[in-house]
Amino acid sequence: xxxxxxxxxxxxxxxxxxxxxxxxxxxxxxxxxxxxxxxxxxxxxxxxxxxxxxxxxxxxxxxxxxxxxxxxxxxxxxxxxxxxxxxxxxxxxxxxxxxxxxxxxxxxxxxxxxxxxxxxxxxxxxxxxxxxxxxxxxxxxxxxxxxxxxxxxxxxxxxxxxxxxxxxxxxxxxxxxxxxxxxxxxxxxxxxxxxxxxxxxxxxxxxxxxxxxxxxxxxxxxxxxxxxxxxxxxxxxxxxxxxxxxxxxxxxxxxxxxxxxxxxxxxxxxxxxxxxxxxxxxxxxxxxxxxxxxxxxxxxxxxxxxxxxxxxxxxxxxxxxxxxxxxxxx
Amino acid sequence: xxxxxxxxxxxxxxxxxxxxxxxxxxxxxxxxxxxxxxxxxxxxxxxxxxxxxxxxxxxxxxxxxxxxxxxxxxxxxxxxxxxxxxxxxxxxxxxxxxxxxxxxxxxxxxxxxxxxxxxxxxxxxxxxxxxxxxxxxxxxxxxxxxxxxxxxxxxxxxxxxxxxxxxxxxxxxxxxxxxxxxxxxxxxxxxxxxxxxxxxxxxxxxxxxxxxxxxxxxxxxxxxxxxxxxxxxxxxxxxxxxxxxxxxxxxxxxxxxxxxxxxxxxxxxxxxxxxxxxxxxxxxxxxxxxxxxxxxxxxxxxxxxxxxxxxxxxxxxxxxxxxxxxxxxxxxxxxxxxxxxxxxxxxxxxxxxxxxxxxxxxxxxxxxxxxxxxxxxxxxxxxxxxxxxxxxxxxxxxxxxxxxxxxxxxxxxxxxxxxxxxxxxxxxxxxxxxxxxxxxxxxxxxxxxxxxxxxxxxxxx
Lengths: 330, 461
Hints:
Number of strands of chain A: 10
Number of helices of chain B: 18
Helix content of chain B: 40-55%
Structural class of chain A: alpha+beta
Oligomer: heterodimer
Low-confidence stretches of chain A: none
Structural class of chain B: alpha+beta
Mean pLDDT of chain A: 86
Shape of chain B: globular
Number of strands of chain B: 19
CATH class of the largest domain in chain A: Alpha Beta
Strand content of chain A: 15-25%
Order of helices and strands of chain A: HEEEHHEEHHHEEEHEEH
Strand order of the largest sheet of chain B: 3-2-1-9-10-19
Number of domains of chain A: 2
Largest interface: A-B, 51 and 59 residues
Largest sheet of chain A: 5 strands, antiparallel
Shape of chain A: flat
Low-confidence stretches of chain B: 42-98
Radius of gyration of chain B: 25 Å
Mean pLDDT of chain B: 81
Number of helices of chain A: 8
Helix content of chain A: 40-55%
Strand order of the largest sheet of chain A: 1-2-3-5-4
């Protein structure tokens, strides 16, 4: 369990069960809440037949999505919902249709069990990554146009940077990430906070290790460059107005090789999007490891304590009978 | 702020099975064994490969238990192994290279059962008799179930955990230390399983007053408990155990199959027959006669092998009603424990304070998989009623006065199998739940002893 899986196991399991039961002609009615990291929530439910609310159409399932990131995601899509939703549907190979958005959710799609395949289930379980990859794809296309411009101008060492900063706020207290496209790279800057003072210390050790391991090992030179600061980096200093003491900025620099083809592009985006969760997960794992060492230490101390006995006072003056009773003389 | 309405996580870690899920759902999202497979030695490239292979073989063959994780199983195994060999090769000048990451090389639940079939992993069950024995393993079990299976950031969710009755308060403190210090969880509530089972019975149409007074009969795989609860508090001194539960019924069926010389008398077959065919009969002598007169009562169970090439027909006969009968007449299978369940229920209630006894008789609630037999509740109600009425009659004769009588009622409902989890889900989805949780701030202020008390909450509607 070194890595967190990209896909949501529970969506996968639920849809798999529904599909299997449906194919066995014993369809089940589902109505489940599923969550994901960063205030993401899904609702999987069987569709009611239009016009007859009491009856359910067991062959169709709704998947509703809502997350904290949706508002800022819409902003990057010029507040155009149809643009965003057509992007998401295309990511799911256009196999599903949009449905009337369920109340208190952001996005709802209709899944038809008659045409659902195993591959689709995997794609649906990755829906969070697909949705959040929108600003990344935008940034990549921006990089491409900037790169073409630089090539055209034939000026040596010229670097163009886009003025547009994609800002996704996926957690409360302004935690989130920024994406900036340049003509030779894409910069992703995370702003993360720690609830606990101890976590902050762990976090610093971790990030230091992230930065150092790239310097020390030639073998992993192809990984993105990582930088860390407690002040907002220059790229975003204009858009970050207020900073607190507990703000931590982690910068990843993605080079063209990190999005050279669709597969690598997806992997890079998925890894970057999971970064915050991975990071906080490992802080927790280290604490668990420390706890187990501490328990072990206490256990050995207890062993020593149990072995120690108070020496009995010598009772040479008192005579004892054979059975161990004291002889008392009057 | 709608995004803050994250559902609470409900976790019921039992001796055998763990139920995980979110409040508001009507059934747990995951039910898997409370098992963890940890590495026994240093991994090498070649041995990891064999693990991989056995993994894929197993996941194909053992399809009914792990089909849902089929894809995830194989990917997580390969992911992990490739990165493990990677890190030991490259990161040799790092802390992680020196120490290794053994503490993260483990599996839980069904994946643990699969992994333990190879030499590399050893299986252990961190919970014994309802109580946590190995805190190291339990902490990692929770870590994996929260992050990998439920995919939640514990800082954003409240947690409802369960504990067995008579759990020492030190154990509660340990749980609090893990949840607040390792996981920084937003809020924690620890509830007694029996109380949650009572809450789950509110879903039954029979229950009208939503009280937290009643007798809970909790029968799982290993042991059956009879637990009286008054106003939400367990009467610890009156709890009684029956050493007869699901496993004994399965063994009893298996024994009958063997005695009769059936073609297949494996534990798996016996288990399937128990779940599919068994029911509780009102009177065994009459039931025997019925079977002898009417051949249609006998059933047949078909055992198919993996490739569905060969079929075996197993006859199912008297064991259909004899097996659950061991609750009511234990002498047919056990020689050392002879008290029938109805008698034990009556004894339990009579050892409780007199003020609550009526309430306890009035609301006998079933929970756990071994109470799922058809007509189990009806039979129990009739038997307890007979015992009680006989005693009332006797005392009426002695005193010469008329008694007002005692109303015995056994409540069974559809959520019985995961009653404890369902009760937790029911309570945790209410708006007030968060205010009853202890928060991280409280913990930092007062220390772990804060979890020794939780205020009871009742959803009055």
